[in-house]
């Protein structure tokens, strides 16, 4: 991930993840919304290219994403009104993240395959980070894992009540920021090691050739 992309990733991750309810059940729908908007936005870009309306792309894509946000929100209401109510307008922040973290805002358009692969690669990095963040915040802050069900949520107890008192700090906004910093450090370290491994693999193949 490039430095500018990393800064955007950190800023948008904080705006979305910190503002979201700190429970895994609600976070799952935020992540699904993010992936849904990324895929649909990529398809819309290709449709705009086919219709030769590139000059309107920067206006059409945000408008379509907002419309898709309303549709997605209605689908969540249909599945579980409780989850939709708790998430509130955070779902619109997922729309903004899908627009900026991926390549939906870039004017130049490549092939559908290349853009889909690139956008899903960026989206999967963010989604993996978000899954770990929501999961750890739920476990450390509440001692449970909430799973989404049509009637609301299903609670899986991990720790006893006495232990959760010690981790209640992570359920707060300051605690979420601290947890975000820790997760970001671990995530960046893993990504850096993977990049080093890839560079070693590539250099090894070149030496063999």
Tell me what the structure shows.
Helix 2 packs across helix 4, helix 2 crosses helix 5 and helix 2 runs antiparallel to helix 6. It is built from eight helices and two strands, in the order H-H-H-H-H-H-E-E-H-H. It starts with a helix and ends with a helix. It is globular. The protein is 76% helix and 6% strand. The chain is mainly α and 209 residues long. A hairpin with a 2-residue loop joins strand 1 and strand 2. It has a two-stranded antiparallel sheet. The longest helix has 36 residues.
Short description, anyone?
The protein has helices spanning 3-18, 24-50, 57-79, 81-87, 90-101, 112-142, 161-167, 173-208; strands at residues 144-149, 152-157. By secondary structure, it is mostly helical. The mean pLDDT is 77.
Key descriptive features of the protein:
6% strand; two-stranded antiparallel ribbon; globular; 76% helix; mainly alpha; single chain; 2 strands; 209 residues
Strand order of the largest sheet: 1-2
- Rg result: 19 Å
* Main sheet properties: 2 strands, antiparallel
The gross shape turns out to be globular
Protein topology:
Layout: H1 3-18, H2 24-50, H3 57-79, H4 81-87, H5 90-101, H6 112-142, E1 144-149, E2 152-157, H7 161-167, H8 173-208
Antiparallel strand pairs: 1-2
